[in-house]
Prior knowledge:
Layout: H1 2-13, E1 17-23, E2 38-42, H2 46-57, H3 60-68
Antiparallel strand pairs: 1-2
Amino acid sequence: xxYVQRIPKLIEKHSGRYLVQGVEPTPAQxxxxxPQRSVLLEFPSKEDAHSFLSERAATDLHDIWERSTNSRxxxxxxxxx
Length: 81
């Protein structure tokens, strides 16, 4: 819970925002091992996303995340228009 309470400030500091926050995905097709929860963040640029991850790695938030979850981070570049 400490991570969940503290991470929004860091996301906001790097101009990020939640698009999806901790929802349980509904598999639509295919036989895959789906995550139990999903979070999707949006940042204005790849540099902002990397800056967020770098600062998170330099704090105890990264250690808390590693101890409390079995997850992965994917960086995706895309177009919103």
